[in-house]
Amino acid sequence: MDANGILNVSAKENSTGRSKNIVIKNDRGRLSQAEIDRMLSEAERYKEEDEKQRQRVAARNQLESYIFSVKQAVEDAGDKLSEQDKGTARSACEDALKWLDNNTLADQEEYEHKLKDLQRACSPLMTKMHGGGAGGQPGGMPGGMPGGMPGGGYQRNDGPTVEEVD
Q1: DSSP labels for 55-78?
Q2: pLDDT (tens digit per residue) in 122-139
Q3: Apex 74 CA angle, 138 and 80, nearest 5
Q4: Cα–Cα nearest to 65, from 110, 106, 111
Q5: What b-and-e string marks burial along 60-87, b requiring 16 or more CB atoms within 10 Å of the CB?
């Protein structure tokens, strides 16, 4: 069998000395060059459409991911958010999920617009939840001792020391 899938078979009858050759081609079920060219041209023609579809699906997935991450963050918020704020976030997420269910054929721009709307609604709550409004403790040290050492002076330590080695 050669590289093109062609099998040459020879048979010889020993008693009479007759021989016959037969060529078996494996062209059944194979694509012709015309069919291959047609498929390549169709792939080129639909390439842009496929890219738009990929971007549309990515935008939908991004919106869906944001919805579920906000819902999870609200559930994990504990007492960082008031029940009213949690209800506002849950309601916005549920509305967005209903919109997703009713607009399965929306285009990329519609999904992106809906994501921005949801982010505008939830961003203040996320900022509040992640400590954007919480203040830190004044003074440099946890116990409120700004100087660092009690008594304010240098204490001598005759024990072993640790030096940095590069």
Answers
A1: HHHHHHHHHHHHHHHHHHHHHT-G
A2: 888 888 887 764 444 333
A3: 25
A4: 111
A5: beebeebbeebbebbeebeebbeeebbe
The Cα 47–Cα 55 span in angstroms is: 12
Long-range pairs, 58-62, Cβ under 8 A, ≥24: 59/108, 59/111, 59/112, 59/115, 60/100, 60/106, 60/111, 62/111, 62/115
pLDDT digits (tens, 9 = 90+) for 7-53: 788 888 888 888 888 887 766 667 788 988 999 999 988 998 999 99
The helix/strand/coil state of 141 is coil
Helix 108-129 to helix 83-102 angle (10° resolution) is 170
The residue assigned the tokens 């992640």 is 130
Mean pLDDT, the chain, integer? 79
Whether 60 contacts 115, CB under 8 Å: no
Residue at 165: amino acid letter? V
Residue 125 near residue 89, CB atoms below 8 Å: yes
What are 121's two structure tokens?
């609604």
C-alpha 67/C-alpha 61 separation (Å) is 10
- 23 near 7, Cβ under 8 Å? yes
